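help with this:

***
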Amino acid sequence: ASLAVLCHSEISHPTSDKIYGKYIELSMNLTILLKDTNIDEAKIHELSKDMVSNDGNEDKIQKILDKFMASLPEDQQKDFGRLYLDKEKLDYITRKVHRVLGYYLTRHQIQRLRDVLDTKFKQGATRPELVEAMVEELTKDVKREKAVKAIELTMKDLKMFNKKNPGLIEKVEVLFGHALVPEYM
């Protein structure tokens, strides 16, 4: 017994132990999660191995998951999608959106996008529908930003106009004030 421990410690490497630990954890979690389905346990272990082998590359993992899903019969695809893949895809898309848009958007905007993604995903939206929902959500901010910028530019123009023509803006305001008085008063 001590010889086996000695041999294991000689060939053991922290990185390989960590990878093996990830494989065992993922494999066990998937096996437990999918235990009530007809998905072959050997396929689950193979999927776990492929996912851990590409641990640093989320895009490859998504391709592996898509390929695995396509290889399953239709009833098993529904089970796998419902129990694992749908949540994994949502997490992946959310992380990607956060990473990509984090440079351009505020935390509040990103949180709103996450909420929209989560809501649409739960409604069963397709990928193009998810993108469209995100575009619609972002368009709200863009319109508001354009409006704010237009107002700021207008204010700047009015300040410059007022410097060139002192008192003219006040006269126009008085005229508009009288013109906008309701008739019933």
Remarks:
- The mean pLDDT is 74.
